[in-house]
Amino acid sequence: MTTQARAVLFHETGGPAVLTIEEVRLDDPGPGEVRIRVDALGLNRAEALFRAGTYYYQPTLPGSRLGYEAAGVVESVGEGVTEFAPGDPVLTGPQIEMSAQGVYGDRIVLPVESVVPRPGSVEAVTGAATWLAYATAYGGLLETGGLRPGDHVLITAASSGVGTAAVQTALRIGAVPIAVTRTGAKRQRLLEVGAAHVIAAHEEDVPDEVQRLTGDRGAELIFDPIGGPELPALARAAASPGTIVLYGWLAGKPTVMPHNWPLTVHMYANGHLSATAAGRRRINRFVESGLRDGGIRPVIGEVFDGLDRIVDAHRLMESNTHIGKIVVTVDH
Ligand SMILES: NC(=O)c1ccc[n+]([C@@H]2O[C@H](COP(=O)([O-])OP(=O)(O)OC[C@H]3O[C@@H](n4cnc5c(N)ncnc54)[C@H](OP(=O)(O)O)[C@@H]3O)[C@@H](O)[C@H]2O)c1
């Protein structure tokens, strides 16, 4: 059997205006699949890059879907699914290939591996803002970066969804988060989120400030989604030995490798950690325990009401004026 659903599609790559909302046919969930009524979508930069054709994999056109992060309720499950039942609150995030499985829509079908339980106390807007940001912060800072209590961690693009999650994740284990933002406009909000210090990169010398704040030791870890030709300058803020976890490429220009050593540079990919059942279990446990005890409180910059606001929501993301996550609620 098939059901009618609404999905956000794009037929050519480009700016936010290429996104359209269309009626699509949705098959019943097959073996190992789950059908979800979507109540809210969490946006992230990867989706803007995918829409523009500049992400690390390309959309299948015409008619590509979009989106990693949704929160909703299970409507039905396919044969062999024992993990979920109709009525369960859930999130999405792991192991999604956006062209075919993108979650922007009012109803979606996903493999069970891409579905994560949502505590009943967590409403959809908060839930949609959680998984990808905290999975990346957990995997990048703790599993790959080896961040320890008492370490200083320099978090660039700290006002982003992942950056604000990284500030909270560092605090959760007793590390000291130093936030970097380009101007002073978001300084006060970043202090409220929990940053121990905030450095405005266009107004201050970041490595000099880090050396001052750490008593000339430098930051044990740099968590950076920017990369590009400025990386060697940023690396002057690293301790010796130090570690950089690069997890994005906002600079959009080739990354130059720093020449200070000993220094370990990792290129972190969340999809690698979430590819195994053991990795997903650790991420999901980290997220779920934090949501339950309040250590994880996603920072929500703006909520747009209704799927037809998706273009406006993407425009806001590209303006870079937001802090934390942008969420779109889905009407039924
Ligand atoms: N490797 C992984 O597994 C993984 C997983 C998730 C996300 N990511 C990556 O993480 C990054 C952040 O994603 P997000 O969704 O959290 O971002 P976001 O919420 O859209 O925030 C991006 C923020 O970064 C800063 N920024 C933007 N362009 C910049 C540039 N060219 N140079 C310096 N700063 C810039 C701006 O903050 P200020 O105005 O405060 O400077 C902006 O508000 C993206 O590159 C994304 O692809 C990677």
TrEMBL record:
Name by which UniProt lists this protein: Zinc-dependent alcohol dehydrogenase family protein
Highest taxon above the source species: Bacteria
Coiled coil: none
Keywords: NADP, Oxidoreductase
SUPFAM superfamilies (UniProt xref): GroES-like, NAD(P)-binding Rossmann-fold domains
Record domain Enoyl reductase (ER): where: 14-328
Record flagged with keyword Transmembrane helix: no
